[in-house]
Amino acid sequence: MTSSDSSLTIRDFRPEDAEAVVAAHRAGREHLVTTVEAQLWLNGRPSPEEHYRTFVAELDGRVVGSVRCGVRCGTTTTGLGHANGSVLPEFRRRGAATALLAAAERHLAEHGVTELHSWLDDEPAALAFGAARGYRIGRAAQFGGRDLALPLPQAPVRPAGVELRPAADWADDPRPLFLVEVDAIRDEPGEVAMDALDYEEWLRSDWARPDLDKALTVVAVVDGVPAAFSMATTDGVDGYWSAFTACRREFRGRGLSKLAKLESLRLAAAAGYRRAYTSNDETNAPMLAINAWLGYERCAGERKGIKRLA
Predict the structure, then answer these.
(1) How far apart are CA 227 and CA 176, in angstroms?
(2) For position 3, what pLDDT does the model report?
(3) Of 3, 19, 93, 269, which is most buried, counting CB atoms within 10 Å of its CB?
(4) Pairing verdict, β 62-71 and 80-87
(5) CATH (domain of 218)
(6) Whether residue 299 is found in the same domain as residue 150
(7) Which domain holds residue 245?
(8) Does any domain span residue 207?
């Protein structure tokens, strides 16, 4: 799909766009840890149910922004989609973001999406942009950042029978880790009930990520059974992202998530990573408390925009 208006062109992602897409994605948002390799993988993997697609905006032949979009998977609620875009600050207010979002809306509507969710930076211009294009502003999330050169808190006493092991130990059969996620994600705050996670889809979309560090992803094991984990992705240089921290319902209240996340951060610091980032819904008091104890400080926020598509 290609469209143009004067010097502005909206077209499909090409592999040579990956570096520019990452630059636009992270401009002014250092807390969004991603890589060129991850963008190439996202756009090259099979996504038969998600219909994942990236559109890029060119101004005078230069890629200045993108929107990443797809059908929401992992839920029994039908007709949901996601679209998240970004444009380099110096090229904003020239129609690129509006055209990118319109392209995503058309693509998703063609695949049955009737309700579109998009995260907006929690600042006046971004929220006004979303509202002007028909998005209702909903729930809030916050990003936390931490300097890994600073000391970490002392580890609590580990309960009897608890081991901390790298996710790499389950490389041959990660299903036990999937079972932790499928149980925990049901209680994640949000508008959508994540009640239909599929193992094969999880393998394709989570476990196979090239930026997932299976040595830094730490699993808390209770009497031989994976009970909690802290999943980590990195940029391979100095940036670390806490992708998801999860604990099975039956093992909660024992501090296992705190132990796993602390150990993951300790390993990341030892491996030379210098900045750690995480994100939480502002109603998720238990994880916000853990992150505060770990030394994270709020560094940015975002709001959910929701739009009904015709």
Answers:
(1) 9
(2) 55
(3) 269
(4) antiparallel
(5) 3.40.630.30
(6) yes
(7) 146-303
(8) yes
Answer whether residue 136 is part of any domain. Answer: no
* H helix or E strand, kind and range, residue 200: helix 199-202
Extract the tokens encoding 226: 């994976």
* Cβ(50)–Cβ(83) below 8 Å: no
CB atoms within 10 A of CB 178: 19
Q: Are residues 180 and 271 in the same domain?
A: yes
Backbone φ/ψ region at 95: left (φ over 0), alpha (ψ -120 to 50), beta: left
Give, in order, the Cα–Cα distances in Å from 67 to each of 45, 91, 144.
17, 15, 24
Distance CA 41, CA 276 (A): 23
Give the integer Cα–Cα distance in Å for 38 and 205. 11
Q: Are residues 101 and 160 in the same domain?
A: no
| Local confidence band at 2 (pLDDT 50, 70, 90 cut-offs) | low
How much is the pLDDT for 310? Answer: 84
Task: Look at the chain and report how many structural domains it folds into.
Answer: 2
Looking at the structure, do residues 287 and 162 belong to the same domain, yes or no?
Answer: yes
At 251, list the tokens.
Answer: 């093992």
pTM over 0.85: yes
Calculate Rg over the CA atoms of the chain. 20
* Two structure tokens written together for 114: 């009737």
Rounded distance between C-alpha atoms, residue 257 and residue 290, angstroms: 8
154 and 52 fall within a common domain: no
Same structural domain, 274 and 172: yes
Coil vs helix vs strand at 191: coil
* Measured distance CA(132)–CA(242) in Å, rounded: 33
**Mean pLDDT of the region 148-169:** 97
DSSP code of 147?
A: E
